[in-house]
């Protein structure tokens, strides 16, 4: 028997990125009635969710320096911690809870909403040191938060929000 | 000796059988119980069963070492008033309404049929004494008031038949057996009353000195069971085969009912917690209730002396089990669509097969197990696991199988056939399967924590390296350069000379985060080398040796920077993984024999 890793070279044109391989993407447009306040949620098959800015978010058109504030005034998202297999103790999120605030150098700002009721598992700490990831890699290393919601809510939202096909179709119009 | 004789007489008077008399005398050797009737002669002033004894040759009835005592006995020639006095308790038992007997019989049969339902699933059958095959009912006064007949020969054929039935069905290859007894709990109450009666007459009598019912039952019943089933009796801790007889006494609960009055606190709290204590009377609770009981207290409950028994305890089920066997081996997994064990999501099978399924199938067949049977009698253990899409090559991954209640050991030839059947699937290859011991399993488990593993990974470079010259632009193809390779081959973030080259911080990967706590762990890469792939300029292969628990896929792509550093950090460009093989799990398994 002689098996080698080179037996396993796939068709490279079928290559899918890490998030495309393992996550189902969903989009929400104009969240909270704010134009192009567009959010992307990525559902792992185990129900864990990543929240990012959607490519059509107005943030990407603004060519200004910015900083990210994870302190909502009520809680510091960076102090979130969860314990055990059950991920107990995570900050509780309502759809309108603010995950973070983006402050532009012209003193304008916007808030990133949680979009879903659930529990905060993890904030992307890389954004503290490398805020540019938010702009450069929104689809991967620039994600904002990991959230866990109930099966019922996750499933309901997954079917309610826009699929990638629906999202692209709407963007073209 | 005089006191022993007096105690013997007292026990006889209370309705004890010969063996039970010996128990209360604290006699502790097998021979005594194997031939209790003969052995008892030395404690009797006059042979208990005069007619029977007369029929035998006198030499046969002499106790092994006490001819002189025997002479004394016959000389003393005690008055005939002292004849065996089962009668003491007869008055009481005669009051029992004869109708009760029939009622009791029906109840017994019902109990028996229930047992049959529950026990037959694992091949251990209940006795079928409900269909009229039961031996003629013994007269009440013959049933020992202490052991309820367990030590009396008349009940044994029924027990023997029940054991034989199970053994014939299960076909063990064991040449020895150990036996165990589940006795009616009422025997504890009865024993207590008898002890209190002895203590009343002989204040220095120590109830802790008596021989337990279980022990004497093994000595009395065990040897003749051995003869009946044709294998040797051995200690339960030595023989792999254990035969347990469940004996039930129809009036058990009824007799124990008085304990609720005797020890109301104990059973009140227990019945309040009924949901938790489904069995109200356990050996433990009954022993507790009787611990400080006095004869006065028991007299008030009409147990001032031991009562006669309306019926003997009978065998309701026999459970035979053989100690587990263990097999060890190493499996090679050639499929990227095969989980190690059945992948269940909400009780549903997500993939058709698994390494475990493929190995269990021919093994179950060799043992004649049904699929359901195999499900709970075969247990798969391994030194770690690989993902569904990861192959395990080289010598394979160490694993073991625990076989519960095996009927026999498989031959080397059969084990080889199992390996061949597994390998013929093309998905899993087994080279050998050998018997291992339970102690060996600790090596397998410790291996999970201590072993190092070697992998090969096929990787893709996703962008130009940041450090490379600026002449690159969007149209230049991305290629793995010699510089990339040498950077990986010399990459380290630990002090020069340290045994590990790269120390990683890995957050629990998202893919397992639903079932594991979120933690940032430090893991190590001991060695890593990279090479280009001919004909595929964007690809590279890495060979990597890690400590246990390192997530290799996450090291390659960095998992959204949740693992740092990642392979991409070594070359200053994002990298992803396309395929992963385990090439070596370092563990000496199964042990060379
Ligand atoms: Zn007895």
TrEMBL record, chain A:
<protein>
    <recommendedName>
        <fullName>Actin-binding transcription modulator</fullName>
    </recommendedName>
</protein>
<dbReference type="InterPro" id="IPR011053">
    <property type="entry name" value="Single_hybrid_motif"/>
</dbReference>
<dbReference type="InterPro" id="IPR039169">
    <property type="entry name" value="Abitram"/>
</dbReference>
From TrEMBL, chain B:
<protein>
    <recommendedName>
        <fullName>tRNA pseudouridine(55) synthase</fullName>
        <ecNumber>5.4.99.25</ecNumber>
    </recommendedName>
</protein>
<dbReference type="InterPro" id="IPR048742">
    <property type="entry name" value="Pus10_N_euk"/>
</dbReference>
<dbReference type="InterPro" id="IPR020103">
    <property type="entry name" value="PsdUridine_synth_cat_dom_sf"/>
</dbReference>
<feature type="compositionally biased region" description="Basic and acidic residues">
    <location>
        <begin position="100"/>
        <end position="118"/>
    </location>
</feature>
<keyword id="KW-0413">Isomerase</keyword>
<dbReference type="Pfam" id="PF21237">
    <property type="entry name" value="Pus10_N_euk"/>
</dbReference>
<feature type="domain" description="Pus10-like C-terminal">
    <location>
        <begin position="326"/>
        <end position="585"/>
    </location>
</feature>
<feature type="region of interest" description="Disordered">
    <location>
        <begin position="50"/>
        <end position="138"/>
    </location>
</feature>
<feature type="compositionally biased region" description="Low complexity">
    <location>
        <begin position="62"/>
        <end position="79"/>
    </location>
</feature>
<feature type="compositionally biased region" description="Polar residues">
    <location>
        <begin position="120"/>
        <end position="132"/>
    </location>
</feature>
<dbReference type="Pfam" id="PF21238">
    <property type="entry name" value="Pus10_C"/>
</dbReference>
<dbReference type="InterPro" id="IPR048741">
    <property type="entry name" value="Pus10-like_C"/>
</dbReference>
<feature type="compositionally biased region" description="Polar residues">
    <location>
        <begin position="86"/>
        <end position="97"/>
    </location>
</feature>
<keyword id="KW-0819">tRNA processing</keyword>
<comment type="similarity">
    <text>Belongs to the pseudouridine synthase Pus10 family.</text>
</comment>
<feature type="domain" description="Pus10 N-terminal eukaryotes">
    <location>
        <begin position="144"/>
        <end position="294"/>
    </location>
</feature>
<dbReference type="InterPro" id="IPR039894">
    <property type="entry name" value="Pus10-like"/>
</dbReference>
